[in-house]
Queue: 2 jobs
Job 1
Amino acid sequence: MSLPKVNVVIVGAGAGGGIVAKELATAGLSVVLLERGEWPRYDDHNDDELNSQRTPVLGNPFGPDDKRHRRVVVYNNGSTRVVLPSEGGYNNNAGCVGGGAVSYGAMAWRFMPQDFRLRSIYGEVKDSTLADWPISYDDLEPYYEKAEYELGVAGDYTNNPFCGPRKKPFPMPAFPYNKEALLIEKTATRMGLHPFPIPMLRNSVPYNGRPACIHMRSCVGFACPINAKAGSHNTVLPIAMATGHCEVRTGCVASEIVVDDRGRARSVRYFDAKNRGQEQPADLVVVSASATETARLLLNSKSKLFPNGAGNNNDWVGRNLQGHLYVGAAGFLEDEVYEEAGPGATLAICDFNHGIPGLIGGGALCNEFIPLPYLFTNMRPPGEPRWGKAHKDFQRRYYKRLVRLHGPVQEIPNFAARVSVDPTVKDAWGIPVCRLSGTRHPADFQQGDFLSKQAEAILKEMGATRVWRSGPSPTPSLSGGQHQAGTCRMGDDPKTSVTDRHGRIHQIDNLFVADGSLNVSNGGFNPALTIMALAYWVSHHIKAGWKGSQLR
Amino acid sequence: MITPVSRRAAMKWAAAGTFGLAAGIGTTAGLARWIRTEPAPYRFFSEAEARLLIPICEQIIPRDDTPGATDAGVIFYIDRQLSSVFQRHQPTYRLGLDAFRKTCLQVYKSPFEQLEFARQTEALRLIESNKAPKELWGDRSQSAFFNLVLDHTKQGFYGSPRHGGNRDYASYRMMGLAYPNLIGQNRYAAGRPI
């Protein structure tokens, strides 16, 4: 049975969907927001390392659960495996209101102007779908600013000569460097580099009714007990709900967007918290379920005009799956640098993002988040004993002397890295699951090799001992992960993209995408703020086309 | 002796109203004695399996001037997870422990528990590098079994005490980390860390 019609139904209450809900609800539209997970509560997980997003050995603390969800991973040799959400191969982000932003490290990067023009700068790359975005940094700048002010970003770009132009300063002062970063700053500056504080979606001072950060060591991978980290769940969604016409329905798993024979989205079918099938009609539908799940939902939405899934007549939905290859180096200092002051990552270097001869792209380097003791057991120079008294000695001697520089490599999109829908495996509701296949582009490994060598050089220069690189693995691997992006690329040509420059699916006038799926390329940075800016951008264009009762 | 499994089964039968018959305890005295029994320490492991696994974990994280895996209760962490979220690993433990027990009897002519510490280390290095007699392990990977126990031991030692291990925050103390986690302190002042 069909529910009463609303103006908008949004699928996914993460960084993108929460912002769209707020923008449209405050513009007077009636909104239903479907979220498969629940509202996160700090008390459910507190500071338990085995239940953290980084080491979810006892299950995903922020969803989805292992009981009802599955994915299929295709390996290089063609073999497949069914993986659980808490296993690495699943490429999980999160399944809760707020999405990945509940437990993230909260880095608040604007992509650089070059990141939107990779094809113009680097030319055609073999075996790649590298392209310019249909929009520029300047187009997105006002929406970056809006995200920074409405959710709250602490930063200072005085010492960053590589950033794009900005009209307003950051709304909050930057976090100061910690001990480790102060030492890196000194060395990096001496080497002619340009270190600066990492911009953070985390309050350095009280902001918008939320308190300043209290620096817990258990920050990244955990919910914040005082909501100093910003996500849609503690910023824009409360505003949306206060309008009285935005309803957040949790525990609701979308199975299909119903597209009629004239090519218009009519409704979203879903299973509610009691597993009952429901159908929510709407004037327009926005999908913001993350790059993997958004692609899956579109592919599972077959209709007369779109027999291969909504917006998929040219076989681009789910293609160009990107994330970030993380590389860098680690070593140890003579004196302890550990501070009981989380999350730990405070300093960034963007000298290696672009303009490196022979490289396509590059990436940022940052000092790292505090690893908790179990995670630290896997941080060892090659050849170090894994167990016995030597293991204990290592934990005791080096935990507080650890220094690390790591960063995300700008991945070069390729058509074969993709999300499709598995022909046989289904989840607990009978919905076909994501099938992940393909590998990263070879250029990523060149970038990764280069970037990790730069990190190694800085650490050695600052006198760290036993320095080892965590470079790219020689075996090509699947991308995705928490930074997943690119599967519903925006573009001006319907033959080589899924949505137009406003996030609207080509040929389906009232169906939009608002999440990292839109990213044509994924920057050499954490993508959260770009996802938020795109959500404001898409919302702006939906509102511009909304004429009282329908979309024109 | 009532094994953990049969006791749990007995509880089920009791719920079904056939307790006395099934458990073979016909008298009131027998029932009273059964009720007084201490809870079995393990949910998954047999006593013999636990006797073997405890020194394996202790090899991985041995006691020196700070507590080791046994002191921290790692066995209880593993046991508790195997009977809940790690159920899929049950066969690996059951079959792996059995093969390892036989390995020690064949190679060292002694149960693992009775070997000297250095000899125990040697025995574990054998399976870590897949060098134990193949016929005792069949298709099962020795190193995969060892790596699983290694990982679970570290989880039990360094994870939150609420999962059964890391008793008295042993590992946090060892690493000089405050516990419970400090909340509300702010070590930054006037733009610089202090």
Job 2
Amino acid sequence: MSYTSFVFWGRGGEGVKTAAEILAKAAFLQGLEVQAFPEYGPERSGAPVRAFVKISKEKIKDQASITQADYVVVLDGSLLSQLDTKNLILNQKKAKLLINGKINPEIKNSVFIDASGIANKYLKKDLPGVVMLGALLKMTTCVKFANLEKAVKETLSKKPELLDGNLKALNEAYTQFK
Amino acid sequence: MRALINGNYAVSYAMMQINPDVCASYPITPQTQIIETFSKYVADGKVTTENILAESEHSAMSACIGASAAGARVFTATASQGLAYMIEVIYIAAGLRLPMTMVVGNRGIGAPLLLHCDYSDSFLARDSGWIQIYCKDVQEVYDTTLMAVKITEETKIPVMVMMDGFYTTHGEQVIDTLSTKQAVNFVGKKPKWPNMLDSKITFGNVSLTDSNIEVRERQWRDLANSSKSILGIQKGFEKFSKRNYGLYESYGLKDANTVFVTMGSSYQAIELTCQELRKKGKKVGCLRPRVYRPFPYNELRAELKGKKIIVLDRAISHGAEFGPMGLEFQGMGREFYNVVYGIGGRDFGLEEAKDLVGKFLKGKQKKFQFYGLRKDLKN
């Protein structure tokens, strides 16, 4: 069985779970099979957290978390200057990494984006999740941009103060990121 | 309708469709979302349920007992320490033969404090006289929640529906939901049962040495016989939903030499592993008990006759020779092994399933073992 797998990393409160949910919803809107689940623990703002997404054309059966991902999305680059989380995040065989932070040539198979910069510009807050998704769609074509945009609208419909800025930020990330 | 939804939301959605008379509950991780969303349905006027937010699980179950004894269709949810705190009244609900549905998001019991999945909470109520059904994914939880309402009202035995904490409670999956009309038609009108408001009957009578064993024997017999109702209701559900459920699920049993037995979401990893190995000509199979009480021991014994069986246990029976599931299966098959895995939510995915199955196909293994212990935590 084959599916495309994503692991999202960040810190509690940065929107890791929401970013994973938006990607899952976009795939769902596209008619694909999908699974999304966060890794739960005692919830603490600022603590490292993970969320997982699996996307496939076929029914996805196993519900276990993902160790070897196709894509690893790091919402908070500071996790890579912390030895324990750095080892966990980089322990990948085939994954492509998308990292919010300054370019670090030592980290292989990775691309970098200043997602916090874009988020701060439009949201006045460091919530880089949606920006990262915009850039992620330049690395994988498994979800269409229009569906991602729709998923952002649906997910953030209850937080109108974040919606407009996020749509602009999404657009900028998608058009600017190469 | 196609929906992207997690196990907790699927349960409260199913219950919203049914609009039960009474819900009495207390929130606890990992089922809190059930109570949260159901309370929102109440606040938004989507249901007319009397929603009792009790001060403890013991009180919540007590309120369910009172409501059911008064003839109401009743629903609740719990997990872990909450179920443990409820246990005294869980036995009473079963002893009084009161219909009700309770969903459990499986989570181990402390100490040490923990949040994640194992079956030590609902196994605590294994001998209480409830029907227990363990689900593997969100679709099954949604379907089983609806079926449970019908099963409990037909059998007058309370029904507990289990899903794996976090894997299923919080895992968003794509499922097919029924229309509310379909759900309501399937579950049907609540039958009338003798209730304390309009019948001259007493609940909670004394039954001492002169009659207690007879009452218990009847309770034991009725639970054993309830599998007929369960199968009938599952058939009725299959007719229009095209989704088919048995007392257990299996793969490749017919000609398998070696069979792996496991419950809940871990079954999927084991099944995928067995399917892979089948392509390489290995005669392996797997089996998942779904209805755990009443336990279909006759059917399982026949299915497993002459086979080497490896039973995976996500719970421990401290001081016993095997785990709780192992104790159920120890007399079955030609050769028997028991493995404790995934305690406290230790992940058991495809890699672990492949590794474990591979070990048992390769060579000699201990009769009883813990799988996947960390070597750096030796004590």
